[in-house]
Amino acid sequence: QVQLQESGPGLVKPSETLSLTCTVSGDSITSTYYWGWIRQPPGEGLEWIGTISHSGSTYYNPSLKSRVTISVDTSKNQFSLRLISVTAADTAVYYCARAHIVATDLFDYWGQGTLVTVSS
Amino acid sequence: EIVLTQSPATLSLSPGERATLSCGASQSVSSSYLAWYQQKPGLAPRLLIYGASSRATGIPDRFSGSGSGTDFTLTISRLEPEDSAVYYCQQYASSRSTFGQGTRLEIK
Question: B43-99 pLDDT, tens per residue?
Fold first, then answer.
């Protein structure tokens, strides 16, 4: 059974960089699946952030593309999210997820999510 | 960007009844790349339906999806108390995946 677990700071200061890691167990990060990040501001809906393929190709939400980097660490079976120049609007629960085999942005396995608050 | 609009915002029904949730797209969703998720408080979303009408693994047949183009529906027959949740539609056809704003389903 695939399991994903987000980790990283729960509090980030405005203008600084948000960095999160997703540790995958029960599957290899180099398998044929794609891996993604999705976020959800408190009390609001879901926003797709971006997706990375097993080979490292990346696809980002155009509204965040200038600030986002998703990368893979195959040695640790992890993938990571980096979001620069954060503001209060980036406060959200951040989820990592594995994409379904039929599509790159359709997610069938999710982490439990981690709340990141942007505040001084 | 494809904008998805869900209706109603809130739905309150009794156990055993049928729920019909709608998702409208601002432009046609190609190849019916439309999914439905269920999210309960404090939990991650759970994939219910993909390809507009295919049930994800382990999803009971009480959940069904239909539609094409710009109009899609999630139907939950024979509601159970544990169906109380927020339901989101998602299109994954374009290079920018988007979600609807959600429908809150309350079981009386």
Answer: 999 999 999 999 999 999 999 999 999 999 999 999 999 999 999 999 998 778 999
* Cα(A25)–Cα(A5) distance, integer angstroms: 9
Interface probe with A: pick from B97, B98, B103, B104, most Cβ of A within 10 Å? B97
Residue-level length of chain B = 108
SS3 B62: coil
CA A40, A89, B105: angle at the middle one, nearest 5?
A: 30
Neighbours of A70 (CB within 10 A): 22
Chain A residues with beta carbon closer than 8 angstroms to that of B101:
45
Q: Are B99 and A113 within 8 A, CB to CB?
A: no
Nearest to A29 by CA among A3, A5, A54: A54
Shortest CA distance to B33 belongs to which of B100, B75, B89?
B89
Q: Which of A87-96, A102-111, B7-16, B78-87 has the lowest mean pLDDT?
A: A102-111
